[in-house]
Amino acid sequence: MKHLQLKHVLMCLLVITASAIISCGGSASTENTGDSASTAMSTDTMSTSSAPATHAEAVITGTKADTTVDGKATFDADNGKVKMMLDLTIPKMANKTVAVHLHEHPDCGDNGNASHGHWNPTHAPHGKWGVDSFHLGDIGNVKLDAQGKGTMEMTTDLWTLGSDTTSSVLNRAIIVHSGVDDYKSQPSGNAGSRIGCGVIK
């Protein structure tokens, strides 16, 4: 009788132990699957976010109550180059010329002053685009017509639409100034106050 009871107890212990092992194994397997899926998802997200964009734009609005500014800048990347198309309408500045630059920070607060200085990752002196030394944000001057409308188009291989902070125009501010860039005064060409601003996204 004692032998049978001992055998019964041993069988019960075996069943309980086996169940515990299977149960733990199942939990570990589920956990690993979850980790793998999470890792894969994280990797996919990272690769997607680091992929360069092919299009970006900035909607430009006025920074001062007495000056209406409507504008848009589009940036399209193709074959290692970025093409910018800029359209501006500033009725108050009809028949005048205004300076346009890319500034360092994506912030139009404080009448555009929160964008800080020109975007200049190469630490070069200010100048005219393509001539001697110039900032990567030194776009130049735009002539406005009798209705205050003006356009500019430029293509360059010095800009990108990616995560490289030394060449990417993404998350920069595009600033319209009230004056003309003289291309020589440091650090910003004596271009006047900031009357328009937009963030490149």
Features of this protein?
eight-stranded antiparallel sheet; Immunoglobulin-like; 2 domains; alpha+beta; globular; 201 residues
Written account of the structure:
Pfam families: Sod_Cu (PF00080). This is Superoxide dismutase [Cu-Zn]. Belongs to the Cu-Zn superoxide dismutase family. It comes from Ilyomonas limi. Destroys radicals which are normally produced within the cells and which are toxic to biological systems. With about 200 residues, the protein is of the alpha+beta class. The protein folds into two domains: about 1-50; about 55-200, Immunoglobulin-like (Sandwich), CATH 2.60.40. The chain is built from one helix and eight strands; from the N terminus they run H-E-E-E-E-E-E-E-E. It has one helix at about 1-50, and strands at about 55-60, 70-80, 80-90, 95-105, 140-145, 150-155, 175, 195-200. It has an eight-stranded antiparallel β-sheet with strand order 5-4-7-8-1-2-3-6, with no helix packed on it. Strand 2 and strand 3 form a beta hairpin. The termini are far apart.
Topology, element by element:
Layout lengths: L1 H49 L4 E8 L7 E9 L2 E9 L7 E7 L36 E4 L5 E8 L16 E5 L16 E6 L2
Antiparallel strand pairs: 1-2, 1-8, 2-3, 3-6, 4-5, 4-7, 7-8
Family: Belongs to the Cu-Zn superoxide dismutase family.
EC number: 1.15.1.1
Pfam families: Sod_Cu
In CATH terms, what is the architecture of the largest domain?
A: Sandwich
How would you describe the shape?
globular
* Proportion of residues in extended strands: 25-35%
Report how far apart the termini are.
84 Å
Main β-sheet description: 8 strands, antiparallel
Class inferred from helices and paired strands = alpha+beta
Give the strand order, joined by hyphens, for the main sheet: 5-4-7-8-1-2-3-6
CATH superfamily of the largest domain: Superoxide dismutase, copper/zinc binding domain
The succession of helices and strands, N to C, reads HEEEEEEEE
CATH topology of the largest domain: Immunoglobulin-like
| Relative helix content | 10-25%
What's the total helix number? 1
CATH class of the largest domain: Mainly Beta
Radius of gyration: 30 Å
